[in-house]
Amino acid sequence: MSFTASWLILAVLLLRLVLYRAPKWSRCVLWALVGLRLVLPISMESPLSLIPRIQTASQPVFDEKAFDFTDMTTFIPSGGAALQEQTTYNAPESITGPGLMTVLSWIWLAGVILLLGYALVSALRLRRRVAEAVPSGKMVCQCDRLDTPFILGVIRPRIYLPSDLPPSAVGPVLAHERAHLSRRDHWWKPLGFLLMTVYWFHPLVWLAYYLFCRDLELACDERAIRNLDGEGRRAYSLALLNCSVDRRTLAACPLAFGEGSVKGRIKAVLNYKRPTFWLVLAAAVACVTVAVCFLTDPADDPALKWIQELTPEQVASVDLVVLPQSQDKQYRQIPEDEIPAVVELLSHSRGNTVREAEILNGQSIWFYLTLTDGTRHEVGNMGNTYLVIDGDYYDAPYDWLSTWEDAYGVGDSPLPEEYFDSTLTLDEPAALFAAIASSPADASFPGAYLAAHPEEHQALLDGGRDTLRYIFTQFLAGDQTGLEGHLMRLVLDELVPEAQLKLAADTGQEYFDAWREAAEGALAEHGAEWMEENQPAMWLMLQMSQAEP
Hints:
23 helices, elongated
């Protein structure tokens, strides 16, 4: 809540500068949105939200009541089995003593109590000062011990005036204080102080409360003088000057007439001009826009949410591939007992979506996860820069991505021959191409083989993305200069007719190399987002090319 409120406060600070001539009530509305953001523990998700996404790293839960540190006979680690053997453990003081969060919690509570006590003492002292006040009108009292007018009270508020207040200042003062009462500022200011008390550790909240108090006074000034002529505004300014006080502390009460940057208030009063319709409309639009963009949270990314909530019980197997790496260290089958550690690592996945991913030549670490429901997923670390989940790129934190190298930066065996087939389920396209290439023996051109096997040909076309993955795998491996290379070229053109190249090529490999060069040129010209939307097949090939062994 502090994190999201920080962005809203910064937005309000910027808007106060941009909408300097807008009605001052709009500033109070903006501060009300800040208060709402600080109060509400939940909010709706919206694609229009400008709040940066934040994930908190999960921490192991430690229950002190579950353990006897002097004679610990049973210890159950997270995800492990119970150890039944007798174990004696003398816990160090740093463990048995209060934890960091406990200490911080007590510090926070002490700050809250201190500020609440300060507010209570200030209110009681003020009550004592006005104990001898005498009524002088409806909800108005006069007192000899006051140096400035103010409102005191939440349930039954009263306007208190100094006994020596000049008669010429009484009218402006009462107009201002009654504007406070009609706006219920004697409620909102204490509530603002209460929020500042809860968030006393947050410097932006202190700044927000300070400016909120100033804007309350400006808004009431504006309401009190909107129907006054030039002479009336001068009288109002003189009353402000006579009642000014030098208050350097932030308090929950009172609403004092002469506080809050009197010099700036006098300048605003003398220069007041009734805002135009368009300025009022702009202020209203700004308030609505801020509410939509900063009172909502960014929608959860489905891929990130899935990986964060994945459990070891859902994972049947995990293959590790590290590229580039020495030929005998590129692959590793993760043992079953190590799968929980992989899932725990991946549960910390976070970052914002990257539309224009940079092509990197550094090390890539890939996990190919096969789930118990039979689905397969790929999660990769591209050069400690990008997190990749099933083809989606995220700008994950370097200090987290770099930890992958410690445990998973190298395999223990060569990359299997059938690596792409096994991890990407490409064995069916291989069998179909082999069947098509087997006959007729006397065919003089590749199209005749496809015509002779209409069922296998149609199955390849129906395979769509899987067929493309197989074709790209074979061409990226190189040396596709025979009949299957020609067949794959023909099927590629059928699957991706919009990317056909009008050129004569002696082999399928030669054609693909030109096709790949065209894809790289399109990427350089238009960028990744355009490629993904307009040339998805070429974009798939470029992604696969980054994982070449």
